[in-house]
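This week, think about what follows.
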Amino acid sequence: MLQCSKEIPGAGAPQAPWWSKRSGIALCGFLLIAGLYLLTEHTAHLYTILPFVLLLSCPLMHLFMHHGHGGHHGSDAGPPSGRAAGNDDLAATRRSVGR
């Protein structure tokens, strides 16, 4: 078999992350300035959209946050932790306080 013995210079040395190089710092500065410009010059547009974003967030939260308790299947299994409605915590707190 024919093997190539040509080594790639710097292949074994760890490279610095892109944001710590000179061009990465310049890019981060440009993006920061552009972001601040957009924020200061276009806030009027954002304020007109804000009520619609709030109204849209309600059904989106309902859709994406119902995965935690199993949805609306109507089962009569009781609480998922296996204990009663939570009176155990109240009773334990009262015992530790001495009431």
In short: Residues 43-65 form the longest helix (23 residues). Residues 8 and 14 are 13 Å apart (CA to CA).
